[in-house]
Amino acid sequence: MSEATRDIEALIELMARLPGLGPRSARRAVLHLIKKRGAVMAPLAKAMAEVATSARECAACGNIGTADICDICRDERRATGEICVVEDVADLWAMERGQAFKGRYHVLGGTLSALDAVGPEELRIPKLLARVRDEEIREVILALNATVDGQTTAHYIAEALDGSGVAVTSLAQGVPIGGELDYLDDGTIQAALRARKRL
Ligand SMILES: [Zn+2]
């Protein structure tokens, strides 16, 4: 194998590690990129290099952006007294696409899992409880996936906030059993947010 071919093979191998891409689609994507290297590949490489150095987690909510505090946390209009708790940044972005929620978020970074030994300290749950205390929060909306671990986590947080005077609600209607937020359409997310219920 020539050195040039080795570089391309290495690129295909890296691409194949992306979620949703196997070796076959990675090969197709790389071929496409090489054919469109002026219009697509060069700008993509530049954008990736930039984001690779600038991307960081928001120190308050865990969203991913390019500043220490994300746009949503910096926006005073979003200090509504509501925090929407999600498992992953992809869920936060899905909620934002739905455009139904005007408050702020809190990204847990996963769910409680006895099997994988994930406890509250491994997630951003202590940070959530501190925010509820410090930010004049009236309502915590649990927008967790309708999986066993998601619901276990929801109940843990509801119990931790019991007696704090804060309303704890969860998304209802719309989220299918075993469903993941990131795969829902915008309308379903809007309906689920509207139909949230007290735990
Ligand atoms: Zn933030």
UniProtKB/TrEMBL annotation:
SMART domains: TOPRIM. A zinc finger (C4-type) spans 58-73. Keywords: DNA damage, DNA recombination, DNA repair, Metal-binding, Zinc, Zinc-finger. Residues 81-176 form the Toprim domain. It holds the Pfam family RecR_HhH. InterPro entries: DNA_Rcmb_RecR, Rcmb_RecR, Rcmb_RecR_Znf, TOPRIM_dom, TOPRIM_RecR. It comes from the Bacteria. Belongs to the RecR family. May play a role in DNA repair. It seems to be involved in an RecBC-independent recombinational process of DNA repair. It may act with RecF and RecO. HAMAP family: RecR. This is Recombination protein RecR. It comes from Albidovulum salinarum.
